[in-house]
Design a protein that fits this description.
242 residues, Glutaredoxin, four-stranded mixed sheet, 4 helices, 13 strands, 31% strand
């Protein structure tokens, strides 16, 4: 991807997200405010031969644009002979549920899910650009602004219908591994904001607050049930000197 295209896309996303933030109500305190940026989830596997390149493209894309990006390692290709060292069953379950909700027969790698509503292969840079801008327009602002202080997710209003709140723990920035077997034996693989855990937060008495302890860095995601529409997102990063 050449520099002018990246700049224009970043400018477009930043403009959309800044406009959305200007419409959001002012909130005080030390909580991380809901960010009005598109949520992108990459599902990748160490047993997928095209995933190393796709992972790098996703990392470059995420760092060049105003998005909230998470990388979920999945293990449903482990039967091919190499067990993914980072995958967890709940990550694969999340991806499968997304694809079911979108009417697809099943998941694939490397798949990017945009805001829980659309998808494309992470190898298709132009599709990622187009869908990210499309989702940014639709997601600005989120319908339920939230705050997250690492302990409690606070919704700006009591939801009129049932919602689910997910706490996604991740390692910020790029991390690397080199599989010792399988299709990517001795090939370096990069992960941007690699997810290490995901849990559903439990509602407190007023249904506008959810207990959501985060030991490190986490993204809180408010969604309609069964991985439906994303209603709000907030990113809580651990202080560097913590």
């Amino acid at each position: 991807m050449n520099a002018p295209k990246l700049f224009s896309l970043s400018l477009a996303l930043t403009t959309l997200c800044t406009a959305a933030l200007a419409q959001s109500p002012s909130q005080s305190g030390t909580s991380q405010k809901a960010k009005q940026s598109p949520l992108l989830e990459l599902y990748t596997s160490q047993a997928c031969s095209i995933c190393p390149k796709a992972n790098q493209q996703f990392s470059d894309f995420a760092q060049s644009n105003d998005v909230i990006a998470l990388t979920f390692p999945v293990g449903y290709w482990d039967y091919l002979g190499w067990t993914d060292t980072f995958a967890k069953p709940e990550f694969s379950d999340r991806q499968k549920a997304y694809n079911k909700a979108m009417g697809r027969r099943g998941p694939y790698t490397p798949q990017v899910i945009f805001h829980g509503e659309d998808h494309c292969s992470a190898t298709k840079e132009k599709s990622m650009e187009r869908k990210a801008v499309k989702v940014a327009r639709r997601a600005a602002p989120y319908s339920i602004p939230i705050e997250y202080d690492g302990e409690t997710v606070r919704l700006s209003q009591t939801p009129a219908e049932e919602v689910q709140v997910w706490v996604v723990e991740y390692i910020p920035g790029e991390t690397f591994t080199r599989p010792q077997g399988g299709a990517n034996k001795n090939r370096d693989m990069v992960y941007f904001n690699r997810v290490i855990d995901i849990k559903e937060a439990q509602p407190l008495a007023d249904n506008a607050r959810f207990a959501a302890h985060c030991p490190t860095s986490c993204v809180a995601i408010v969604q309609k049930p069964d991985l439906g529409e994303v209603l709000g997102v907030a990113d809580h990063k651990q202080d560097a000197d913590a």
